[in-house]
Write a structure and sequence with these properties.
three-stranded parallel beta sheet; 13 helices; mainly alpha; binds tryptophan; globular
């Protein structure tokens, strides 16, 4: 079985974009892979976040992972900070990475631009991500397009470390899901649907009510030529709706476009399909909220399984660089 690892930041309510772009594929991956999925709470500290909110968001994220269908019997679901080797390996990898290569990370440039003070953790963020991946000898890493460069860095660090100190790490590959990898904002279809931009009408939450979903789809921006066809460049709003319908019904956007002559009919069906898709998630979420001790036990078990793997990799890496073993 292929070892798969991915992580998601505990950034408050998950969006439909998180679900169709990532989580839906995580659920599929668990069928025939040995999958590790973590809530990356340490990564969240690179931004200003209230401690209470971070704690609540981390639990919330874990509940959502279970609600969308991750099965703790088949996947290891855990919280990053519960496994201390993530930070320990980060140090060894910070001494492998160079300031030059971290300065070239586009996400760092974007997020630090125009800010007077920038946390050092924002700069080393991709190294922590590399540690997440390398600790578990992950072969396949499902990530969105925006994380491709970070994954490339993880590969570079693995190779450099292995060359310098001997075979220690598995060199990971990206596993970028093809279909519906990018769900766009319903009001600004040229940008990605994201919780972090303020666009309440453009963003569908994983836990939105059917009424909210229907309203947001009805108000989604389209165009004035009135023709239903799939054209990402000329008709980005409509293309996004077709992508959503395709993702929700496992079709292709070109296929699902057939048979529609009016935007209103398409929107009605998109809303219905999304409601169908998200209803079981909402229901399972409500059940889990009533059984938080179950969620806690899943995370404890996940942390213990993850730790079992991580401590072996870390011990090998520490030995390779010449740290004196404690006993
Ligand atoms: N940086 C990733 C993101 O913003 C989240 C992440 C952290 C991650 N660690 C990871 C993804 C390890 C894949 C593997 O989406």
């Amino acid at each position: 079985m292929t070892r798969v690892l991915s992580g998601i930041a505990p950034s408050g309510d998950f969006t439909l974009g998180n679900y169709l772009g990532a989580l839906k594929h995580w659920v599929t991956f668990q069928d025939d892979n040995d999958a590790f999925y973590c809530v990356v709470d340490l990564h969240a500290l690179t931004n200003e976040i209230d401690p209470q909110v971070l704690r609540r968001n981390s639990l919330d994220a874990a509940i959502n992972l279970l609600a969308v269908g991750l099965d703790p019997r088949r996947s290891t679901v855990f919280v990053q900070s519960h496994v201390p080797e993530h930070t320990r390996l980060t140090w060894l990898l910070e001494c492998t990475a160079t300031v030059g290569e971290l300065s070239r990370m586009t996400q760092f440039k974007e997020k630090s631009e125009g800010h007077e003070t920038v946390r050092a953790g924002l700069f080393t963020y991709p190294v922590l991500m590399a540690a997440d991946i390398l600790l578990y000898a992950a072969e396949a890493v499902p990530v969105g397009d925006d994380q491709r460069q970070h994954l490339e860095l993880a590969r570079t660090l693995a190779v450099r470390f292995n060359n310098r100190y001997g075979e220690t790490f598995t060199v990971p590959d990206a596993a970028i899901p093809g279909a519906a990898a990018r769900v766009m904002d319903l009001q600004h279809p040229e940008r990605k649907m994201s919780k972090s931009v303020d666009s309440p009408l453009g963003t569908i939450g994983l836990l939105d009510s059917p009424e909210e979903i229907t309203r947001k789809i009805r108000k989604a921006v389209t165009d004035t030529d009135g023709e239903v066809r799939y054209d990402r460049v000329a008709k980005p709003g409509l293309a996004n709706l077709l992508d959503l319908l395709a993702a929700a019904t496992d079709g292709t956007p070109q296929e699902v476009a057939k048979g529609y002559t009016r935007y209103g009919d398409l929107k009605k069906d998109v809303a219905e399909a999304l409601n169908e898709l998200l209803r079981p998630v909402r229901e399972r979420r409500a059940e889990l909220e009533r059984d938080l001790s179950y969620v806690g036990s899943v995370l404890a078990e996940g942390a213990s399984r993850a730790h079992g793997v991580a401590k072996l990799t870390y011990a090998r890496a520490a030995d390779a660089v010449g740290l004196l073993p404690p006993s």
